[in-house]
# Entry
Amino acid sequence: MADQVQITIVGTGCIGTSIGLALHQSKQPLLVVGHDKEPGHANTARTMKAIDKSDWNLIGACENADLVILAIPLNAIEPTLKAAGPYLKEGSVVTDTASLKAPVVEWATALLPSHVHFVGGDPVVTSAGAGPEAASADLFRNSLYCITPTPNTHPDAVSLISGLVVLLGGRPYYLDAVEHDGLAAGVAHLPHALALALVRSSSRQGAWRELRKLAGGGFEQIGAVMGEDPDALADLLLANRDNLVRWLDGYGAELQTIRALLAAGEREPLAQAVDQALVAYRQWGSDRRNLFNEASPGGEVERPAFLRQMLLGGGLSRK
# Structure
């Protein structure tokens, strides 16, 4: 019988380090191991006491883990599953934090052994940056955390990840992976595309030399949405391209509406459009603070249940 659960966090940026901080704050009997291709990130996470130790070797970090959390960009998940999958122990569970779910579910189904369980996850949080320095133990508190099981997902694995979410301070929100990706395209991925378009449009103007001097906080905030990794952003947008193209078409139509209002030069119709948008935005903010007044579909998840399966049942090896 195991007396300590090992959780391995692959990727010790803001999300991964925040998970480690929250886990340690929970005072559960855990060994948290970190792995990152950037050794400096793992060292920072260890210094912050988000992880108990780091392992530069991916397989070494994962092979004894009861739970593996992939807190890495979408384009790094498939090669990581391919490399570590064969070495994961029987009954272990793998989850991720990517904002796109259907491709990850496909990769996990194809690459993980049958004795390893996968449950997709996507925390709906607002982080202050990408590195471990921006991490916070409270990042997930009072936030929805998407969980995307499939019909074939082991129920105990879903229960385990649900317990993890509650342990982090979040609220599980269950939905289908394909449905998740269609919705995420409109509010999570569309802003990336819009930021890309805005910065390209402005910086490619002949007057950019003068324009850039007037670019202030608004331009900075929008530009920051693109992140720092061009390959990661390109791969993310391409991976959800069908959904994203439909949302871009709708956004383009709305831009034409706003253009027509500006061209007409009539204040009242434009003011009405602004008011409608502000009302919707404020209502969203209020609903989000109240977690959209939604109870967990499966009822409240007890915090102690998170580790009970692994501490007392030897993992999820018995199906």
In short: The chain has two domains: 5-175+295-313, 179-264. The mean pLDDT is 92. The chain is about 55% helix and 10% strand.
